[in-house]
Design goal:
It is built from twelve helices and 16 strands. By secondary structure, the chain is of the alpha/beta class. The protein has two domains: about 140 residues, 3-Layer(aba) Sandwich (Rossmann fold); about 200 residues, 3-Layer(aba) Sandwich (Rossmann fold), CATH 3.40.50. Strands 10-11-9-8-14-15-16 form a seven-stranded parallel sheet, sandwiched between helices. A five-stranded parallel sheet has the order 4-3-5-6-7, with helices on both faces. Strand 3, helix 1 and strand 4 form a beta-alpha-beta unit. The longest helix has 19 residues.
C-alpha cells in the first residue's frame, strides 16, 4: 500500500500529506512558494534549502516526496543538482525558474528527466498569479504519483546527429505521411528521445502535442532543433507541413490539420479545446487517411483514444507506448482498453514501430 495512504486513525485509513522540499536561493521566493503550497491541505513543506548542495543534503535527511527546484543558484546550480539527484537521491523534481527563455537550460532540464519546468510566479497580474498558483500545486501533486523508475535522461550523440543532418536535409523526400504524436504530463523527455532516434529520411512530417508552458516553448524548440536530426519548429497557425520537420505545440492550444487552396496540408492553431489530442488525431486522419500514424505516449486522462479510433477507421496506424514503460500510464492504458491501438511498443521500440508503418 502507498505510504501516503496508509496512516490509520480511529480505525480508518487517512491519506498522508505529500512532503515537499523547496530549493531556491532567494528567501522571499522560498517563502512565496511555501505559502502557495501550504494553501493546499494535501501538501506539507518539510523543509527549504538555499542551493543545490544544501538541497542534496536535505533530500537525504528529510526524504521528501517531491522537490521544487530553482536553476540559478550559487555553489551548486539547479542543473548540476538535478544530475546528482537522479543518481544519488532519486525524487521527482518540479523546476520553478525565471530562466525559461534560456533554451540550453530548459532543454537540458527536460532532457535530464525533471517532471516539469514551470516559469516562476511573477505576481504581475492577479489572474496570472492565480493560474500560476494552481499550476504549481497541480504539478507537485502529480509529481508525487509519478512512476519514477521510468524516468531516464536522454543521452545524445552529437557526431551522429551532425552526420544525419547532412545526409537528410528536410524537404528532400516527398511528403506522403503524417506522424501525429500526443502526450501531456512528463512527455518532453520521451519526445526528445523519440526524435533523436527516428530517421528524418521518412516521407513524413511530425506534429507533437504535449503539455509545456507556452512561455518555455520557443527556447525549448530552438535548442531541440540543434540536438536531433529532424528540423524542429513551433507549430503556427497556417504553417504548411514539410517533410523532415517536427512541429511542437503546447496543449494549451488546439491543432487541427487541413488542406489549403493549393491542396497542401497545413495546421490550424487555435484556442484550447477539451480534448486536443482527439482533435489532432482525427483531423490528421481526415487529410492523410491511411497514411496517418498516430502515436500516444505517457500522460494522464482519457484524451486521444477517440482520435485513435478515427485513424483506424481511415485505415491508418495507431501506436501506444507500453503502459508499463510510461511515467504516467493513463493515456495509453485507456486507448488500449478501448481497443483503438494497432500496436504497443516500449520506448526503445517506438522508432522502429513507426518506421515499420511505412513499409
Amino acid at each position: 500500500m502507498n505510504d501516503r495512504l496508509s496512516t490509520e486513525k480511529n480505525g480508518c485509513f487517512m491519506k498522508n500529506k505529500i512532503k515537499v522540499l523547496i530549493v531556491d536561493d532567494a528567501l522571499f521566493m522560498r517563502k512565496a512558494i511555501s505559502e502557495i503550497l501550504s494553501s493546499d491541505s494535501d501538501l506539507e513543506i518539510v523543509g527549504t534549502a538555499s542551493d543545490g548542495m544544501d538541497g542534496l543534503e536535505k533530500i537525504k535527511s528529510l526524504r521528501p516526496d517531491v522537490i521544487t527546484l530553482d536553476i540559478d543558484m550559487p555553489r551548486m546550480d539547479g542543473l548540476e543538482a538535478i544530475r546528482h539527484i537522479m543518481i544519488e537521491s532519486p525524487v521527482p523534481v518540479v523546476v520553478l525558474s525565471s530562466l525559461f527563455s534560456d533554451g540550453a537550460v530548459t532543454f537540458e532540464a527536460l532532457r535530464l528527466g525533471v517532471f516539469d519546468f514551470i516559469p516562476k510566479p511573477s505576481g504581475a497580474i492577479v489572474e496570472d498569479m492565480d493560474k500560476s498558483r494552481r499550476q504549481i500545486i497541480d504539478r507537485v501533486k502529480l509529481a508525487s504519483s509519478v512512476n519514477f523508475k521510468n524516468i531516464r535522461r536522454v543521452k545524445m550523440n552529437a557526431a551522429e546527429r551532425s552526420a544525419e543532418l547532412q545526409v537528410f536535409p528536410s524537404g528532400t523526400v516527398p511528403l506522403e505521411y503524417l506522424i501525429a504524436v500526443g502526450t501531456n504530463i512528463s512527455g518532453p523527455n520521451t519526445v526528445i528521445r523519440l526524435l533523436s532516434r527516428l530517421s528524418p529520411s521518412l516521407p513524413a512530417s511530425i506534429i507533437v502535442m504535449k503539455e509545456i508552458a507556452p512561455q518555455i516553448l520557443p527556447s525549448f524548440v530552438k535548442k531541440f532543433d540543434e540536438h536531433v536530426p529532424w528540423g524542429v519548429k513551433i507549430a503556427e497557425d497556417g504553417m504548411v507541413l514539410e517533410q523532415g520537420i517536427g512541429y511542437i505545440c503546447s496543449n494549451e492550444y488546439s491543432v487541427s490539420v487541413e488542406r489549403n487552396e493549393n491542396n497542401e496540408p497545413y495546421m490550424r492553431v487555435s484556442k484550447p479545446v477539451d480534448n486536443p489530442l482527439d482533435l489532432m488525431f482525427s483531423t490528421a486522419a481526415d487529410v492523410f487517411k491511411k497514411n496517418t500514424v498516430g502515436v500516444l505516449l505517457t500522460g494522464v486522462g482519457v484524451d486521444g483514444s477517440d482520435g485513435f479510433s478515427y485513424i483506424q477507421n481511415n485505415n491508418g496506424i495507431t501506436i501506444a507506448q507500453d503502459a508499463q514503460c510510461c511515467v504516467y500510464p493513463n493515456l495509453t492504458s485507456n486507448a488500449i482498453e478501448k481497443g483503438t491501438v494497432t500496436s504497443i511498443a516500449n520506448e526503445r521500440q517506438l522508432p522502429q514501430f513507426i518506421e515499420n508503418s511505412f513499409a
